[in-house]
C-alpha cells in the first residue's frame, strides 16, 4: 500500500491509522492499530479488572444537528466494565501528515478530526493495548459487550453517556472504514485499539478491536456500571 497524506476532516473517513513504532501514520483507506515490538495480549496475563465508577456530573443533552457546533471538547473517559478511567489527550495531525498518538500507553486520545462526543457523528477515541512494560489503557477493550456504558466528561463538566451496540474484531486488511468513520445521524462513539494475533515477524498485531456505541439520555444513568 502506498503511503498518502491525510487531511483531518470530520465529515469524511479518516484513512488508515497504523500505530507502529510509536507513531500513527496515515496510509489511506483502511484503519489499523498495530503495536510495534509489543508482547501481545498473550504475553500479559489478564488480572482483576479495576473497580471504576461512573463519573458524577450533569448529563449532556441529546445531540441535535443544530447544536453540533456548541458541544464542549472531551477531557476524560470512563468505561466501568473494563476499569478504564483516563484523561483524554487530543490527537491531531502533524506537519508531515501523520496522526499524533499518546506518548504513553496509560492514556487514550480523542481524534480531533472526528465528532466531539455528544455531537452528531462518530467520535473516535484510540488507545494502546499494551507495551513491553505491561497493560495499556485499552488492554481489556476486547472484553466489552453490547449494553456496556461509556462516559465522556467534557470541558464544561457535562457527561456524555453512551451504550455500546457492538464490539468487533477486524483483520487490518478488511477494516470497515466507512462503518467506523462514516457519517451517522446520531451521536456515536468508536473505541479503537489493536488486538488479535501478535505477529513477531512484523512486530505488529494482525487485527483491530472496535467498540461501537451511541449516545443515551440521563434515564439510563442508574444502570451504567457492569463490573466484571
What would the keywords be for this entry?
mainly beta; disordered C terminus; disordered N terminus; 36% strand; globular; single chain; 228 residues; Sortase, Chain: A
How many domains, in number, for the residues? 1
Could you name the CATH class?
Answer: Mainly Beta
CATH architecture: Beta Barrel
What count of helical segments does DSSP give? Answer: 1
Question: What's the mean pLDDT score?
Answer: 78
Superfamily (CATH H level) name:
Sortase
Q: Strand order of the main beta sheet, please? A: 3-4-5-6-11-12-10-9
Number of distinct beta strands: 12
Fraction of residues in helix: under 10%
Largest sheet: 8 strands, mixed, barrel
Strand coverage percent? 35-45%
The parts where pLDDT drops under 50 for at least 5 residues are: 1-42, 220-228
Rg is 16 Å
In short:
This protein is mainly beta. The protein has one domain: Beta Barrel (Sortase, Chain: A).
Topology:
Blueprint: E1 17-20, E2 23-26, E3 74-79, E4 84-91, E5 108-111, E6 121-126, E7 130-131, E8 134-135, E9 149-154, E10 159-171, H1 177-181, E11 187-199, E12 204-216
Parallel strand pairs: 4-5, 6-11
Antiparallel strand pairs: 1-2, 3-4, 3-9, 5-6, 7-8, 9-10, 10-12, 11-12
Amino acid at each position: 500500500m502506498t503511503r498518502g497524506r491525510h487531511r483531518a476532516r470530520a465529515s469524511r473517513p479518516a484513512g488508515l491509522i497504523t500505530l507502529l513504532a510509536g507513531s500513527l501514520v496515515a496510509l489511506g483507506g483502511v484503519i489499523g492499530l498495530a503495536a510495534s515490538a509489543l508482547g501481545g495480549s498473550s504475553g500479559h496475563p489478564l488480572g482483576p479488572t479495576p473497580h471504576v465508577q461512573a463519573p458524577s456530573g450533569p448529563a449532556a443533552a441529546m445531540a441535535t444537528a443544530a447544536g453540533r457546533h456548541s458541544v464542549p471538547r472531551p477531557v476524560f473517559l470512563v468505561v466501568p466494565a473494563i476499569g478504564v478511567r483516563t484523561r483524554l489527550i487530543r490527537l491531531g495531525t502533524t506537519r508531515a501528515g501523520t496522526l499524533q498518538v499518546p506518548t504513553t500507553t496509560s492514556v487514550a486520545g480523542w481524534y480531533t478530526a472526528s465528532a466531539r462526543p455528544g455531537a452528531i457523528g462518530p467520535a473516535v477515541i484510540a488507545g494502546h493495548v499494551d507495551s513491553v512494560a505491561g497493560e495499556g489503557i485499552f488492554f481489556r477493550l476486547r472484553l466489552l459487550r453490547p449494553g456496556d456504558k461509556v462516559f465522556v466528561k467534557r470541558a464544561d463538566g457535562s457527561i456524555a453517556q453512551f451504550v455500546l451496540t457492538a464490539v468487533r474484531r477486524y483483520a487490518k486488511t478488511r477494516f470497515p472504514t466507512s462503518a467506523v468513520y462514516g457519517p451517522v445521524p446520531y451521536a456515536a462513539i468508536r473505541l479503537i485499539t489493536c488486538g488479535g494475533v501478535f505477529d513477531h515477524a512484523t512486530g505488529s498485531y494482525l487485527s483491530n478491536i472496535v467498540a461501537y456505541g451511541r449516545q443515551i439520555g440521563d434515564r439510563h444513568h442508574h444502570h451504567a456500571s457492569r463490573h466484571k
